[in-house]
Design goal:
The chain is of the alpha/beta class. The chain is 43% helix and 17% strand. Strand 4, helix 5 and strand 5 form a beta-alpha-beta unit. Helix 1 runs antiparallel to helix 2. The longest helix is centred in the middle third of the chain and has 22 residues.
């Protein structure tokens, strides 16, 4: 059995122009990190060791935005920006060294809004779920992988969780009706919501989504380049379902 931890970066709100005064992001990224259950312990200790090394309390949600950090006393005199960059590099190196696969969906909201493909923010998530499920399914088919996959997502307020559940189910049902070879039984029938403070996989998915988002929104590809080798390949070649760029029509 495998677990697909999912997180996103960027806003789901519609964006109809590139004017930065609009506030919300141009891109919405959904990322998944797929780990077999037998590899969970190794992955956990790689990430946990980084927290234990730098932070007063390692039981907290470490996000790629690096907010609300409480470093150990011995790091108080370090340059904080340099320290954060060091830790980020260590986290992305840990993902590199973990036996896992990464998947991503990139949605450029501006052309999709302009063409009427996105009419409300629910459609942003729906489109992301559709494509990330398709990406994982295509990987499974190409590798004759029969593992069932549990989908895990960060829990937020009740209304948000209900919205995510409904959009995920709509994506599952749409694929079941329209996508040849899609077997909904390959995926957990519902989303499994967790407290990300205690779920390292969701925190790692946040780092993956953050790296992909910064790569396109900020043209900062330092960390997305580090992760490139973790996306599925075929005979050494990058395959199109590893990282799906939603057509801009």
């Amino acid at each position: 059995m495998s677990i697909l931890y999912i997180d996103e970066s960027g806003t789901d709100a519609l964006k109809k122009s590139t004017d930065i005064r609009e506030g919300n992001s141009k891109y919405f990224i959904m990322a998944g990190i797929l780990i077999e259950t037998k590899d969970l312990e190794d992955a956990f200790y790689r990430f946990d060791a980084i927290k234990d090394k730098y932070f007063k309390d390692k039981v907290f949600e470490l996000k790629s935005s690096f907010k609300n950090l409480h470093f150990k006393e011995e790091y108080s005199k370090f340059n904080q920006n340099e320290l954060k960059q060091t830790i980020k590099t260590e986290v992305y190196s840990a993902i590199q060294e973990t036996n896992c696969l990464l998947f991503g969906v990139q949605i450029n909201k501006v052309p999709l809004c302009d063409k009427g493909i996105l009419k409300n923010k629910n459609e942003t998530y729906h489109l992301a779920f559709l494509n990330i499920l398709r990406a994982v399914l295509n990987y499974k088919k190409s590798h004759a992988n029969d593992d069932n996959i549990i989908i895990i997502l960060d829990s937020r307020e009740k209304q948000h969780n209900k919205r995510m559940y409904k959009l995920y189910r709509e994506a599952i049902e749409q694929h079941s009706e329209q996508l040849k070879g899609f077997n909904s039984k390959d995926f957990s029938p519902t989303l499994n919501f967790v407290d990300s403070s205690y779920t390292f996989g969701v925190q790692l998915a946040d780092f993956v989504a953050g790296a992909l988002w910064r790569g396109v929104e900020k043209d900062d590809k330092k960390y997305s380049r580090m992760l490139k080798e973790k996306f599925p390949t075929n005979n050494g070649e990058f395959v199109k379902f590893s990282y799906i760029v939603v057509p801009e029509f």
